[in-house]
Design a protein that fits this description.
The chain is mainly β. It is 2% helix and 45% strand.
């Protein structure tokens, strides 16, 4: 879990990250853009579709020109959802669904021909990677959607419910994916159902045959990756946002052709929007520089609908948004400088779980931390100079490394030592409760002299209770909390629920000479908190 402390709410995060890097692209600055497509032959050429029609860019997405003025569109809907695609081997070959029909251009949008007519909106179009005469589409029908291909007899398949989540394996064009989640090994002749980890709203297959799935709008945006055609999945959602309204998901996802670890996701509530909705606080474009293992938002919130890389070196990031056309940003921002001054405390249990304060500079809410190469948990951002994490299991002396969202990292060598408290001989004997990963041994004696040993029941790493011989009822309760990140000490709490005389002994295995005794006389009720002894 990642936390932003105190008053830093989601809407304030962009101020922490710096000025918004997104700029409007001339030629396409109005209307909603729902699809942006690139190609392999000339990455300078991109196509975009939305409420204003079909647009083409010849400079990596920096400027745009309308190309669909001659296409009839009596209802003025333009391109709906993902109803546009470009053939990957030729950037001049494009198909689009405008005005209830599929229109095709083979000359970069200079002229158009009507490939087919439809009585309903066309929601998705996707070219076969190798055959420009073959493309797949999804159209609205009266009771759902209809999936079809451009080759062969009419083959509307309402029962499959492929939907606009659709992907083709670039290396094996026979393999199609659709819906949530279906797979075909024979170009859609037959389909089998797979088991993704969530309801799928977006699909993309990469050049190596890996399958990326994005979640449909729900309480949290999620991404998962499969290297075996959807048989097994690994979650790649760390840093993606949650929504208190239960309506946020992955609308689009693109991969950098120059860097297989670089991905950008468009996060939003799908195609249903309300002006001024509080969903704005989590919408936007989220980047990963480590193959989806960590994500952070690029700039301010935007009502994201589509995203793609553009330019010969994939140096431009192009985003389609609601009402604002296309935005562009630097696809490879400079690495964020990080400095680590100190960490506290400098030791903890080999079992992990120690709260660790890290002081330095250049921290952001999207920073992440490793201790000895293993990722820490429970990240909390206080400000650019202070963060806190919980240590993972480890052994011996380890480096503490702070990683920035843009790929840079800074290590403090040997800053933390993991200790096996249980291996330290202390001669505590039986009847002790081992708390805080075994660092503290707590024992209780009760009654008249000679006092009897009470029986411990450990409830957690931080608490236990003790019962006496005559009944297994709680007689003494104890708790220890790690307050070192607050005042440098552990805090020991105890409470006696009996009129019998009680003696409580606490031994610190990190310092066996440090033992504390708390006594309650017979006939009294007592409790105490010691915040300075350990």
């Amino acid at each position: 879990m990642r936390r932003v402390a105190l008053v830093l709410v989601a809407a304030a995060l962009p101020a922490i990250a710096g000025s918004d890097p997104w700029k409007p692209a001339p030629g396409l600055t109005s209307g909603s853009v729902t699809v942006v497509r690139s190609n392999d032959a000339d990455p300078r050429v991109l196509w975009a579709g939305g409420s204003g029609g079909v647009y083409r860019s010849a400079d990596g997405g920096r400027t745009w020109t309308l190309k669909s003025a001659a296409i009839p569109d009596p209802q003025g809907l333009g391109v709906v959802q993902r109803g546009l695609d470009v053939f990957r081997r030729n950037p001049n070959v494009v198909v689009t669904g405008v005005g209830g029909a599929v229109h095709r251009s083979d000359d970069g949008g200079a002229t158009w021909t009507g490939d087919s007519a439809s009585a309903s909106r066309i929601l998705m179009l996707a070219f076969d990677p190798d055959a420009s005469n073959l493309y797949y589409g999804v159209s609205d029908v009266y009771d759902g959607t209809c999936w079809w291909s451009s080759v062969g007899a009419s083959n509307c398949r309402q029962d499959q419910q492929i939907g606009t989540a659709f992907a083709i394996d670039p290396g094996h064009p026979d393999v199609l994916y659709g819906g949530s989640l279906l797979r075909s090994l024979n170009r859609g002749v037959a389909w089998e159902r797979l088991s993704p980890p969530f309801t799928v709203g977006f699909l993309r297959a990469d050049q190596m045959g890996g399958l990326w799935a994005g979640s449909a709008p729900h309480v949290r945006a999620r991404v998962a990756f499969s290297a075996d055609g959807g048989a097994t999945w690994s979650e790649r959602s760390y840093g993606l946002p949650a929504s208190p309204f239960g309506n946020v998901g992955i609308v689009d996802l693109t991969l950098d052709a120059k860097d297989p670890n670089a991905l950008v996701a468009a996060v939003g509530p799908g195609y249903l929007f309300e002006a001024g909705s509080d969903e704005n606080s989590v919408r936007g474009f989220y980047r990963s520089v480590d193959a989806g293992r960590h994500w952070y938002r690029v700039g301010d919130h935007h009502e994201a609908l589509a995203v793609a890389f553009g330019g010969v070196e994939a140096e431009v990031l192009v985003g389609g948004v609601v009402g604002g056309g296309v935005l562009t940003s630097d696809a490879r921002p400079s690495a964020t400088p990080i400095a680590i001054g100190s960490v506290f405390p400098d030791s903890g249990s080999i079992d992990g779980g120690t709260l660790l304060m890290i002081y330095g500079d250049g921290f952001t809410p999207w920073t992440w931390v490793t201790v000895g190469g293993s990722e820490a948990t429970d990240f909390t951002y206080f400000d650019a100079r202070t963060i806190r994490v919980r240590t993972p299991p480890g052994s011996g002396v380890a480096d503490v490394t702070v990683h920035s969202a843009t790929g840079s990292a800074q290590a403090l060598p040997g800053a933390f030592r993991s200790v096996d408290w249980a291996a330290i001989p202390v001669g505590a004997g039986d009847g002790a409760a081992a708390l805080e990963n075994g660092r503290f041994l707590v024992s209780v004696s009760w009654g008249d002299a000679p006092m009897a040993a009470a029986h411990p029941v450990v409830l957690s790493q931080k608490s236990a209770y003790f019962w006496f011989d005559f009944a297994p009822a709680m007689e003494v309760a104890v708790k220890i909390l790690d307050g070192r990140t607050i005042d440098g000490h552990y805090w020991f709490h105890w409470s006696a629920l009996t009129e019998k005389a009680v003696v409580i002994r606490v031994l610190d295995r990190a310092n066996p000479l440090n033992q504390r005794i708390y006594a309650k006389p017979a006939g009294a009720l007592a409790a105490g908190i010691d915040k300075t002894s350990f």
